[in-house]
Design brief:
- With about 160 residues, the chain is an alpha+beta fold.
- It has one domain.
- Strands 1-2-3-4 form a 4-stranded mixed β-sheet.
- The protein is globular, with a radius of gyration of 14 Å.
């Protein structure tokens, strides 16, 4: 799939992650989990998503992962992981389609095809919002730098 074929949020998730919330169903619990509980639950679910947090499987996710590593120190880069959370409580309640983690620091990411240019960050629950038009040009370097900075601020 390429950018021109993306019509829905599900298409965009598949383009970036190779999977969408429509593919996995709804993994929300009846009891509202805290953000940290949701993070821990997602880490345990990566096998269900056929996802290796050390080796992202799509070209876009791999490229973003490798570029984030460029902006981290050697230890942070060595411990960097990318976890998919589409269809989970972290997605539906905390607005996070995937997240990066290194040395206990987490940077959350949300994918959207909705134009939020008026107040791009006001409605975003995640640390970083990736819009469909962000994936053209040099987006990966800019986003990678932003994600790395967020990880380093928390560490």
């Amino acid at each position: 799939m390429d950018v021109l074929n993306v019509k829905t949020c599900e298409d965009f998730e598949r383009l970036v992650l190779g999977i969408s919330h429509a593919d996995v169903g709804n993994y929300c619990s009846k009891n509202k989990a805290t953000f940290q509980e949701s993070i821990e639950a997602v880490k345990k679910m990566q096998g269900q998503f056929n996802w290796n947090p050390k080796r992202p499987k799509t070209e876009l996710s791999r490229d973003l992962f490798n570029n984030v590593c460029l902006f981290l120190n050697a230890e942070e880069a060595k411990r960097l992981r990318l976890f998919v959370s589409v269809g989970t409580e972290l997605d539906f309640r905390y607005g996070t389609d995937f997240f990066f983690e290194s040395k206990g620091s987490v940077a959350t990411v949300d994918l959207t095809i909705i134009d939020l240019t008026i107040s791009r960050w006001k409605h975003c629950k995640a640390n970083v919002l990736i819009r469909l038009d962000d994936i053209e040009g040099g987006f990966r370097i800019r986003l990678a730098k932003r994600i790395a900075r967020f990880i380093q601020k928390i560490a």
